[in-house]
Design brief:
By secondary structure, the protein is mainly β. It has helices at about 1-30, 255-265; strands at about 50-60, 60-75, 80-95, 100, 105-115, 120-125, 130, 145-155, 160-170, 180-190, 195-205, 215-225, 230-240, 245-255. It has one domain (about 1-265): Autotransporter beta-domain (Lipocalin, Beta Barrel), CATH 2.40.128. It is built from 2 helices and 14 strands. Strands 1, 2, 3, 4, 5, 6, 7, 8, 9, 10, 11, 12, 13 and 14 form a 14-stranded antiparallel β-sheet that branches.
Length: about 270
């Protein structure tokens, strides 16, 4: 009987951690790094963004997240960005063995359909799909195909930028339910190479009888060179189960000239 209760507790912990991992993969990893809320600005045509990052999530029951994940964005045509995230996920419940392995793969396309003007914000849609490539029995994935369908807006005022929006999450599976998300970010370019900002967001419950979550993050982006950048944010729930969350990444940005320079070096 005791073993049966322990088994149920471990399964519950894995479910809680799996929920946390999905929240991060759908809201956090795909977001406008280093924040969970995204922006509508796609990568420039024929340019790339490469991130090696870690996102961590703590509740009273467990730690979970990615260590690391790889994110790749490419401007395939003007105003359209292709998106891929390949994560190594971990699950470390208080009661149970820690797990580590490949998580759910994220694919998406960002399409900016409205350019910013003096009066209007820029706007984009960014549909995302989560492929269930992680092992759900080990707490490393959701075990279901899932999707997030958001609309993002952005407006700049000198050194200040505000962006945000919301979306609808499709979350099939026993005990799951579809959910909504809304968030906003205010950021400022305090120096030529330093940006600081903060966000607040709200997500409705993803499970039947589950809890809504309202949370915040503060963060920064530091440009060390034109191509190399450090991104960091941290925060927690205001009303929810997240005791702590953090994101850190090294970003490398490059365009066609990067490949041209490599080609020239081989020809010498």
């Amino acid at each position: 009987m005791a073993n049966e209760r322990l088994s149920k507790i471990c399964r519950l912990n894995r479910a809680v951690v799996g929920i946390g991992l999905f929240v991060f993969s759908t809201l956090g990893i795909q977001a406008g790094p280093p924040f969970i809320t995204d922006d509508p600005e796609p990568v420039d045509y024929q340019h790339w963004e490469f991130y090696i990052a870690s996102q961590d999530f703590q509740t009273s029951d467990a730690w979970s997240g990615t260590a690391p994940h790889i994110e790749l964005n490419y401007g395939v045509i003007t105003n359209v960005q292709l998106h891929l995230i390949a994560p190594l996920a971990y699950d470390a419940p208080k009661n149970g063995a820690a797990q580590y392995g490949y998580g759910d793969t994220e694919l998406g396309v960002k399409f900016r359909f409205l350019q910013e003007t003096s009066l209007l914000p820029q706007a984009a849609v960014f549909p995302l799909v989560e492929a269930p490539t992680g092992n759900s029995s080990r707490g490393l994935g959701s075990g279901q195909w899932q999707a997030f369908l958001p609309l993002w807006l952005q407006k700049s005022f000198g050194d200040w930028t505000v962006y945000g929006g919301g979306g609808y999450g499709i979350n099939p599976g026993t005990g799951n339910q579809n959910w909504g998300f809304g968030g906003a970010v205010l950021q400022c370019q305090v120096r030529d190479n330093v940006l600081v900002g903060g966000e607040i967001y709200h997500r409705t419950a993803m499970q039947t009888g589950g809890r809504n979550d309202t949370a915040f993050n503060v963060g920064t982006v530091i440009d060390f060179t034109e191509h190399q950048h450090l991104l960091f944010s941290a925060g927690r729930s205001i009303d929810g189960s997240t005791d702590f969350q953090a994101y850190i990444a090294w970003q490398f940005t490059f365009g066609p000239e990067f490949f041209h320079s490599i080609a020239r070096s081989f020809r010498k």
